[in-house]
Amino acid sequence: MTKNKASFELKDLLKMEIFWIVLITIFFAVGTIGIALPEYRDNLVRLSSFHLLLTFIVLYYSRKDKKDKFFLFAFLIFVLGILVESIGTNTGILFGDYKYGTTLGAKVFGVPLIIGVNWATMVVCSSTLVYRLKLNLIWKSVLAAILMTSLDFLIEPVAVKLDFWSWAGGEIPIYNYICWFVISLPMHYFYMKWNLVENNSVPKAVFILLAIFFLVLNFV
Q1: Using one digit for the tens of pLDDT, what is the confidence trace for 22-55?
Q2: Which of 21, 113, 142, 206 is most buried by its number of CB atoms within 10 A?
Q3: Do residues 2 and 182 touch, judged by C-beta distance below 8 A?
Q4: Strand partners, 107
């Protein structure tokens, strides 16, 4: 009886993962197609902040446990993300000389609030991808930071094209990617160190969908 109950619960959890993956895949597919088509692009771009927020909400509700601790960690990353981005946009000391446009909504210190959410989303997704690898925590953190930086490499040209942000002189500096790696490294480390990573397919799917989304839009 206990075995059957455990099996039933596992099936239910698997079904829920499938539900969330299907849901977020639909939203990404609509976003990708809509932005790729000129007649729908402006309307879909205006929904970018909503899309990013929805993605984080899916990550939160698809978790099996430790939701409170997860939320607290995500809030910490949100604050740190806003902090480092505000230093970057106002001084150029981090990332380089760049400014945010109006597309991503309300700002604090020149940084859209949704950017803090995006930092949390990307840390969670890239950490989950490497979590099961047979590496020590340091190397997992390094690999996760590389994955996150690689995703930013895909994001940057699209973000400039859609007026998420812009770079002085139109050039995306290598220094930007160095900062992404260095800053995200401790974030990944503590996310895994505090045992917040779950063996959950949803964050993995979100990372892949983000990569596909920006890869496609790089060629549109």
Answers
A1: 999 999 999 999 999 999 899 999 999 999 999 9
A2: 206
A3: no
A4: 112
Q: Specify whether the CB–CB gap between 213 and 28 falls below 8 A.
A: yes
| Sign of the four-CA dihedral 47, 53, 59, 62 | negative
Q: For residue 131, report the phi and psi dihedrals to the nearest 5 degrees.
A: -55, -40
**CA–CA dist 65, 67 (Å, integer):** 5
121 in Cβ contact with 181 (< 8 Å): no
Q: How many CA atoms lie within 13 A of 147 on its CB side?
A: 22
Whole-number Å distance between alpha carbons of 118 and 180 = 13
Identify which of 168, 162, 123, 165 has the alpha carbon closest to the alpha carbon of residue 145: 123
Report d(CA 21, CA 25) in Å as an integer.
6
What's the pTM value of the predicted model, to 2 decimals?
0.91
In contact, 99 and 177? CB cutoff 8 Å? no
- For position 220, what pLDDT does the model report? 83
pLDDT tens, 52-69? 999 999 999 999 888 899
Q: Read out DSSP for 146-170?
A: HHHHHHHHHHHHHHHHTTSEEEGGG
Predicted confidence band at 90 (pLDDT cuts at 50, 70, 90)?
Answer: very high
Token code pair at residue 90 = 């106002």
